[in-house]
Design a protein that fits this description.
The complex is a heterodimer of chains A (102) and B (200). With 102 residues, chain A is mostly beta strands. Chain A has a single domain (10-101), classed as SH3 type barrels (Roll). Chain A is built from three helices and five strands, in the order ββαβαββα. Chain B has 200 residues and is mainly α. In chain B, 50% of the residues lie in helices and 11% in strands. In chain B, strands 1-4 form a two-stranded parallel ribbon. Chain B has a two-stranded parallel ribbon with strand order 2-3. In chain B, α4 packs across α5. The chains are: A mainly beta (102), B mainly alpha (200). Chains A and B meet through β2, α2 and β4 of A and β3 of B. β4 of chain A pairs parallel with β3 (146-151) of chain B, so a sheet runs across the interface.
């Protein structure tokens, strides 16, 4: 499996809430769901923790370091401050141009 | 439900270990070795890695590109440990490490995390108001420094390579390691010169 997003790609974290559908183990923080960021690095491939946690066969998934501007997330903070977070590929989608401009 | 009484816990643990051993999943020796390496891990290891990186550009490059290999060079066994990533502070950029989801921490090179690192308060506030958190630690960043909060959410463990303070020119690795505290290695503090050294 090769990484779908190259460093520098603008992405959005899926606005998905599996915890509302039933038992799950996810490593994507709630405060980033639906948020846009930029891929900073491809960190490698790791077994999907969402399967590992339930002792299911866990396919390896690309893991990214994604950079987010910090103030828009919380509607407070200092311009220029940022958040750098590990996120698995199946949680990312390309940022759409219209939302990028908004 | 309350926890089983201590002798029951020990009996349960012994049965569990025996079951793992019977299936060939682990040996008593492997458990003893892991216990020993866990006990050896302390922030002094991370501090020595930083001190060496400050004096040795080749080691610094290795530390930033492959933290686990850099740890192995210091005699740390990284077998079975998560990959180690190292975040380099530079003029205008300061890193702060947190794990909002649990308490991921680079134990192989820093040992056990302190209690505050695992607290709800630190985990919730570090990503939202990092400047207020640093202020409470008494950590004053140089003007015009951006903060990059690194939320340790998945398979890596993260350690900070701080900037070498001015006034440490010509210092030995031991002298440098002494100013790199546990708190410096996750970015809640900056390396500080001892008062005597600063006064000289």
């Amino acid at each position: 499996m090769t990484a779908a997003f190259a460093p520098g790609t603008r992405i959005r974290v899926r606005d998905d809430w599996p915890e509302r559908r039933g038992p799950c183990h996810i490593r994507t923080p709630h405060y980033l769901r639906g948020r846009e960021g930029v891929v900073q690095a491809v960190l490698g491939e790791f077994p999907n923790p969402e399967d590992l946690a339930f002792a299911r066969p866990a396919p390896r998934r690309p893991l990214y370091h994604v950079l987010f501007e910090q103030p828009p997330i919380w509607a407070e903070g200092e311009a220029g401050d940022s958040l750098l977070v590990e996120i698995f590929e199946h949680w990312l989608e390309p940022a759409t141009p219209s939302q990028e401009a908004a | 439900m309350s926890a089983p009484a201590r002798p029951e816990s020990i009996a349960l643990l012994e049965k569990f270990v025996a079951a793992l051993a019977a299936r060939g999943l682990v040996t008593e020796q492997e458990i003893a070795e892991r216990q020993a390496s866990t006990d050896r891990a302390s922030p002094e290891i991370g501090a020595r890695m930083v001190a060496r990186a400050w004096r040795d550009d080749e080691y610094r490059r290795l530390l930033l590109s492959n933290g686990a290999a850099a740890a192995e060079q210091m005699g740390v066994s990284m077998t079975g440990a998560p990959p180690l990533g190292v975040l380099e502070d530079r003029p205008g950029l300061h890193h702060l490490v947190v794990c909002t989801l649990c308490s991921c921490y680079p134990r192989a090179v820093l040992g056990y995390p302190p209690h505050w690192y695992k607290s709800f308060e630190y985990r919730a506030r570090a990503v939202r108001e990092p400047r207020a958190v640093l202020a409470e630690w008494g950590t004053v960043l140089p003007p015009a420094t951006q903060i990059r909060v690194v939320d340790s959410t998945a398979d890596y463990r993260w350690m900070v390579l701080p900037m070498r303070p001015a006034g440490t020119e010509g210092w030995s690795e031991d002298q440098l390691a002494a100013i790199v505290t546990r708190d410096v290695l996750v970015g809640v503090a900056l390396p500080r010169l001892p008062v005597t050294a600063a006064a000289e």
